[in-house]
Amino acid sequence: MKCQECLTKEPMTDQFNVFLHPDLLPITEGEGELSGVEIAIKDNILVKNWPATASSKILEGFISPYDATVITKLKKAGATLIGKTNLDEFAMGSSTENSAFGPTKNPWNPEYVPGGSSGGSAAAVAAGYAAASLGTDTGGSIRQPASFCGLTGLKPTYGSVSRYGLIALASSLDVIGPMAYDAETVERIYQVIAGKDSNDQTTFDYTYKAKNAKISELKIGLPKELWDLEIDPEVKKATTELMNFLKDEGAKFVDISLPSIEFALPAYYIILPAEASSNLSRYDGIRFRQSVKKEGQSLIDRYFETRALFGSEVKRRILLGTFVLSVGHYDSYYQAAMNVKAMAEKDHRQAFEKVDLLLSPTTPTLPFKFGARKDPVEMYKSDLMTVAANLAGVPGISLPCGLSKSGLPIGAQLIAGHNKEDLLLSVAKQFQLKTSYHKERPKL
Amino acid sequence: MSAISAEEIKHLATLARLTFSETEEAQLTSQLPHIIEFVDQVSKISKNEKSEETLVVDQAELRDDEISSQNLTSEELSNLSPAWRESQVEVPGVFNERTDD
């Protein structure tokens, strides 16, 4: 499982701006089930004595004083941590264009974005710099870049992986998960990082065990609200590759409706900014190092000066969060969004009483060029297919299922009920045994 | 469209302790109403849909005792703050010094 490309690329040339802090030396501590697996870590996850910036100037110079729980587990399992990867600032974005340290390029075509916010983690694997990577998924930030970079990316059940040591974006939605070309590697990493953690009270007792699902016994739902969206014909065609495989194996397909999906994206863009505006209030220039003591400067002036270091998208979302939580708007926006979240949970629970899996494209479009989505709302629509799973807290996976005529990767998404990662990964492994989409590589 | 004026944006910015360049301010003034109009779609949800369920996992919220299992040293903590004096984080005064008029 060792990443052969990594061994032959010394010194590593990072032509896609994948890594932040390029001087870091790889860490290997323990020995175990992940010995020899080289893993890149998204720069919003803390690794002791390594910098952690979340791609923000406001955290420049901050050195993590402890390991995130997922890092402790990876180290114990013998994984080699090879570096920290670029992301949209504080994981706010869908293209990695919002990084304060410049965008990451898609190894499949450097004129195109790698997706986001875990774009650096996806590009690291796609370019062969790492065998696997850790990303985080708040509204699609593992699945969308996995789709854009031709990878398998797992967004686990909320609470199945500890968030201790993760720089918070929206705490009720954030989850850490693995990305790799193949589902088997994703499964090996997920098995290690999943489980209860006394440092994160949203985690629950859970031990992952692989299963061998009988596809012929599965019933698969096609969510009307997702398939009715405007979907690029090439994306639709590639997704049918996965559908055809499942049909050939004997799975039954039914149309299904989850009405909350229609409201999931606007609700998400209320809940996320609301939580982010609270989580990011801690960056005050006193904690986390960033600010210079100036004689005669008041505390409030120091706050303003420090927080001017936030990028435009972060400021926009903090402002939106402040708006939706303010007196007079709380019920119209935040409470309504929380109602949608409750509806999404209920809709998914009822759906999984009728079907085993939901299937859709991971994104409605192919990867897009840098600068192509200047309107924030158009950029937010990158999450249309993925965000409902975050509101419902259920797991999802993106699988490579083809290339466009222009040679860009396309992903298909499967969603399952709570703690059904075993089903998702079993189906993914069986699909990849019979197909070779996950074996495609960019020409570097 | 949900109206939000430039004045309201400035007030929100003050509440959030944010400052904006002229370019950012111009962008926000044009973009924020559009974003608010987009998220306003949630208002189409009938009040009858209101649910008490807000947990995303099917279990009761648990509250365990928080037992300290690791501690950072003073040196490690001092490395995380911009100024440190006599084992304490040094911060600017919260109130301006009183001056005699």
Shape of chain A: globular
Name the average pLDDT of chain A: 94
Query: Sheet bearing the most strands of chain B, described?
Result: 2 strands, antiparallel
Percent of sequence in beta strands of chain A: 5-15%
Could you characterize the architecture of this molecule?
The complex is a heterodimer of chains A (444) and B (101). Chain A is α/β, with parallel strands linked by helices and 444 residues long. Chain A contains 14 helices and twelve strands. Chain A has helices at 4-8, 69-76, 119-126, 143-148, 183-193, 224-227, 233-248, 261-279, 299-307, 312-324, 330-354, 376-380, 387-392, 421-434, and strands spanning 19-20, 27-28, 38-42, 80-85, 132-136, 152-155, 176-180, 219-223, 252-256, 357-361, 396-403, 409-415. The longest helix of chain A is centred in the last third of the chain and has 25 residues, at 330-354. With 101 residues, chain B is mostly helical. Chain B is 33% helix and 4% strand. Chain B is built from three helices and two strands. Chain B has helices at residues 6-15, 22-39, 74-78; strands spanning 84-85, 88-89. In chain B, a hairpin with a 2-residue loop joins strand 1 (84-85) and strand 2. Chain B is flat and about 50 Å long. The model of chain B has no long low-confidence stretch (mean pLDDT 77). At the A-B interface, helix 8, helix 9, helix 10, helix 11 and helix 12 of A face helix 1 and helix 2 of B.
Features:
heterodimer; A: 444 residues; alpha/beta; twelve-stranded mixed beta sheet; 12 strands; globular; disordered N terminus; B: 101 residues; mainly alpha; two-stranded antiparallel ribbon; 3 helices; 2 strands; 4% strand; flat
List the helices and strands and how they pair.
The complex is a heterodimer of chains A (about 450) and B (about 100).
Chain A: H1 4-8, E1 19-20, E2 27-28, E3 38-42, H2 69-76, E4 80-85, H3 119-126, E5 132-136, H4 143-148, E6 152-155, E7 176-180, H5 183-193, E8 219-223, H6 224-227, H7 233-248, E9 252-256, H8 261-279, H9 299-307, H10 312-324, H11 330-354, E10 357-361, H12 376-380, H13 387-392, E11 396-403, E12 409-415, H14 421-434
Parallel strand pairs in A: 3-4, 3-5, 8-9, 8-10
Antiparallel strand pairs in A: 1-4, 2-4, 5-7, 6-7, 6-11, 10-12, 11-12
Helix pairs in contact in A: 5-14, 8-10, 8-11
Chain B: H1 6-15, H2 22-39, H3 74-78, E1 84-85, E2 88-89
Antiparallel strand pairs in B: 1-2
